[in-house]
Each structure stands twice: as C-alpha cells, then as structure tokens.
Specification:
Length: 242
C-alpha cells in the first residue's frame, strides 16, 4: 500500500516525534484533532513529545480518551467498533467471526478500554509494531483467505463512516446489504435502514452473531438466507442494523 513506516525510539528528535504524532492521528482518528480535542490530549501529547511515553502508551492514552470514544464507540454498534479498532491498531480487518466474537465478549463484559488494551497487548501487535512503530495499513504477502485480503483492502481504504456505523465490512455483503453510500439497504427492502443511532443491547449483538453464524454454515445464498428468516428474526436483524 506504500505506507511510510514511522519508528520513534529513544533517539528520535522532537521533529520526528511531531511527524509521528500526525501519523498516529491520521491512522487512529482518520484526521487531525480539532482545537478543543487537542486540549483534551495535551498532557499525553507533551509526554510523547518529551519522550516520557512511547508510541504504544500514547496509543492507549488516545484510545481511552473521549476524543476517540466519541468518534468510534459511543455512537456505533459494538461490532463496528471492534472492526475500527482492528483497522486503527492492527492495520487490518478482522479475520473471521471467531475473532470478532472473542473481542466482542471482552467489550461487552469488560468495556471498551479493556478491549483496546487486549489488542495493544496482543502478540500480533507486539510482533508487527512493538513499542516504537506507529501502526499502519498492512499489506501481507499471504492472507488467511481471499475474504481477509478483500476486507482489509476495503476497510483500510474507505473514508470514515463511508459504509455506515453499524454493520462491519465482514458482514454487510454476507447479509445481502448494500452499505456503500454510508447507509444500509437490502435489495428486497423498500426502506433505507439508517435511523438515528442508539446504543446496542447485548441481546441484539448476540442475535446478530447467531444469524451470521447461521448464514455462514448455510448452503443458501445471502439473499435466500435473508428471505428464509422469520418475521421476528428479520425484525431483530433490522433493530441491530438500526
């Protein structure tokens, strides 16, 4: 993908740290902070620029801040939040539903901070980025599956909120939904599934995962699987997407 790797070690100059800070914001916030957000992040920024904390510690401070949580957690579904965390901190899309389920359980039972910490403490993160490298969109020589290759490419190149705030890229096409314009629509549905966002309940998160599991093991196409849902299942699915 041609992304410039930024490594900030003990010998980095202030100018190099400032450049790395801009790259961190581009990778994690997908933009530079606004003035009022810089005030929230001021102490962490100064600690980073003065070499009191490294890249990984600054990432944790940024991720637990209201600046990050207001953008990527409070207004979105748990599943979409997890997908964005993978994009921002691991530079790739989730590999499969098992990986999503693992972190969804951490998120629902321990909270957003513990979920992000689990990613930053993971063996994969330590191996790929260590303590000094700013995360970046990764391009692998080999992928676990064509789906992982496709999803990582789509996720790392899409603009913030481009395909909605609810359904992860791993699932939207499996459900037969078209979310390319930032809202989700099923070919058989008349309405656009994009009402105001509200907090997702644990029961609805589990319901969506159950439906996706059923789709994955079914020999039917996504449209056939959608058509075979009972009215109550369709309503549950629409409530999750909402």
């Amino acid at each position: 993908m041609g992304t410039l790797r930024s490594v900030v070690d003990r010998h980095a100059s202030v100018e190099e740290r400032q450049a790395a800070l801009r790259q961190i914001y581009t990778q994690v916030l997908e933009r530079q902070p606004y003035a009022h957000e810089r005030r929230i992040l001021a102490k962490a920024e100064q600690d980073f620029l003065k070499d009191k904390i490294g890249v990984r510690r600054f990432l944790m401070e940024l991720a637990r801040s209201e600046v990050y949580l207001n953008s990527f957690y409070h207004r979105v579904s748990n599943l979409k939040f997890i997908e964005w965390c993978f994009k921002h901190f691991l530079g790739r899309a989730p590999m499969d539903q098992n990986e999503v389920r693992e972190y969804c359980n951490i998120l629902m039972h321990k909270g957003a901070e513990k979920c992000i910490a689990a990613i930053l403490d993971s063996e994969e993160y330590r191996k790929e980025f260590g303590c000094f490298t700013v995360p970046y969109p990764r391009e692998h020589r080999y992928y676990a599956s064509p789906k992982v290759f496709l999803e990582s490419g789509i996720l790392n190149h899409e603009h913030f909120g481009q395909r909605g705030w609810i359904v992860p890229t791993l699932y939207w096409h499996e459900l037969g939904l078209d979310c390319t314009a930032g809202v989700c629509r099923h070919p058989e549905a008349d309405e656009i599934l994009d009402p105001p966002i509200s907090a997702e309940s644990e029961a609805l998160q589990e319901k969506l995962l159950e439906l996706l599991d059923a789709f994955e093991t079914s020999t039917q196409s996504a449209s056939e699987a959608f058509a075979s849902l009972s009215p109550s299942q369709r309503e549950a699915l629409r409530r999750v997407i909402h």
